[in-house]
Amino acid sequence: MATTTATTLAASAGDGSSPPSRSTVTTIAAQAYHVLKINGYSNTLKAGCHYPLSTCPFSAGGHTWHVSYYPNGCRDSNKDCISTFLSLEGIVTEDRRTCWQKLHSACSIDTGTWARGFENFIRRDELERSEYLNDDYFAIAAHVIIPKEKPSVVVPPSNMHLHYGDLLVSKEGTDVKFLVGGEMFAAHRLVLAARSPVFKAELFRPTKKGTIDAIQIDNMEARVFKALLGFIYTDIWPEIGHGKDNVAMAQQLLAAADRYGLQRLKFVYEDKLCNHIDTCSVSTMLVLVEKHHCCKLKEACSTFLSSMSPPIVEDPNSSIFGSELEKTVSSSENHRSQINRTDIRIQPWQNADV
């Protein structure tokens, strides 16, 4: 994006202030074209030798620059010449040093500071005879170009998750099996232990070799465990839609993530479930809140309940209330297994018309 600025530097050169000049800057990417316009050249000669008159700052390549103009030279040896320098402002950092080293310029002098330019830019008598000086006016242009370093080799983005995903699918080198919902899953102990503190504790505790063919996991659907393994290996979670089955899947994944200490996955689905609260799901959400300590989901449920008109009264002593609302969060992969039920009762609002 191009940026253009213009300033006027007024007053006489002899009183320590800046000469009448204007600066125009056009910046595109990592380059800037800066034009210093000197209005009243003869007045600037009142500045003493070695006395610089600087332009307003301008930006290029993420750094700030200015042009210094010495109307009577910067040294005794070139007091009959005009000196000009491009200066890099700011504190010396490695980034600024690299920027300065990459600065391409036809400048002949590096002062040892953060300024580069020409001590003998032009003799004053030559300038005064030339066509460049017209009506006591002339201009100096500085084109700053900071090339972006192109890497010799384009480094592709990380695809580690793809390799681990292939490892899970291929089952190569697996050393542990799980029986979940009637389905068998093979995995790698080290991968599971590295990602889950619960798996680490379960898989590396002292056991007698050859006594366990497969670890059985109860109260979890096979599809949920498959998604859980996919996240452990690839750090990618399945997206959910707005259907009841998708929301139920997200609820079970949140519970599974909490069960195996996968906080990142838990937070992902807690955030997603905050956007799927309605009158049909709020009771189940509150069960999740209590069982798995979901603070954000609790806040979202409270906000939803308080926004209902008329609001719900959670008062067990209310004289007028309807039937209880009971919701059960349970696994459905094996109906013959024991089902843990949690009741939540929400008292309906008091009806003023009754």
Automatic annotation (TrEMBL):
- Give the family this protein belongs to, as stated in its UniProt record: Belongs to the Tdpoz family.
User: Where are the annotated segments for Disordered?
Assistant: 1-22
The chain positions of domain MATH read 31-144
List GO BP terms, alphabetically.
Answer: protein ubiquitination
This protein's pathway: Protein modification; protein ubiquitination
Provide the protein name: BTB domain-containing protein
The chain positions of domain BTB read 174-235
Q: Which organism is it from?
A: Oryza barthii
